[in-house]
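Schema walk-through. Below, the input block comes first and the output block second. Nothing else is stored per chain. Lengths vary across the set, and this one has 97 residues.
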Amino acid sequence: MKNLVSLFGFPVNDALVSDPTPTRQYDCQVNFTQALAKCKDLIPLLFQRSKRKIRLILDALFAILKKTIEPIRSGRKYPQNHRVASRKYYLNFKPIA
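--- output ---
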């Protein structure tokens, strides 16, 4: 599913790069999380519908993906602290309360 969504996002990303808007401060890209959420129900329809309806579904999907964009902010580096908290009890001995 991720591969299909990324394939659907390529034309939209190309359109965003080739058509910059002067009011935007940053370059933009498709919000992949939103794209996955929107395509979750549409991908099965692509295998069940006729060619005409598939084209309509894809056009609607591209319109949705163009609306759900996020800015690309280059040069942002924040350390991510992935600390694992030590457990007070082993998994077999969990407190009740």
